[in-house]
Specification:
There is one protein chain. By secondary structure, the chain is mainly alpha-helical. It is globular, with a radius of gyration of 19 Å.
């Protein structure tokens, strides 16, 4: 057989796209204008509003990031920031929340002494929020949810 017979004719195209995508997602070059997407929680983690479900909400989440891969942290074993994130959830931010996110990102990067992908930062903040439903409900109440029917 000739060399290359049976190869995927689009294989180079896909790998070039992946390289471009990964390069555009490097934490040092990431901007605060990236779309707010890629937060996912499966249906098993949803709550029905009962106080007893607080532990159920996060029990299905791998919050420590170690996973099944011989204890290798998730951030180190993935090939791109979007690996293992099949679900896309878009959300919009008010200007003051966007500004606070930039400050928050800087504080987290300073504490970790490294750049942090915006998607990782947002998902981590989301996971922490799910561990504190009372605080989230309190904020929503201050935003006016206490006055809704």
């Amino acid at each position: 057989m000739k060399s290359g017979t049976g190869d995927d004719p689009f294989g180079d195209l896909v790998s070039e796209e992946q390289r471009d995508e990964e390069a555009s997602e490097s934490p040092a070059e990431a901007t605060d204008d990236e779309p707010a997407a890629d937060v996912a929680v499966d249906a098993a983690t949803a709550t029905d509003g009962d106080a007893d479900t607080e532990t159920d909400t996060t029990s299905a989440l791998d919050v420590d990031g170690a996973g099944d891969d011989d204890g290798i942290p998730w951030v180190l074993r993935r090939r791109s920031v979007k690996d293992d994130r099949p679900n896309v959830t878009q959300f919009f931010l008010r200007d003051e929340t966007d500004r606070a996110e930039r400050r928050f990102r800087g504080e987290v990067e300073e504490r970790l002494d490294t750049d942090v992908y915006l998607l990782d930062l947002r998902e981590a903040a989301y996971v922490v929020a799910m561990q504190h439903p009372d605080e989230v409900a309190s904020l929503l109440g201050r935003w006016g949810y206490d006055y809704r029917d």
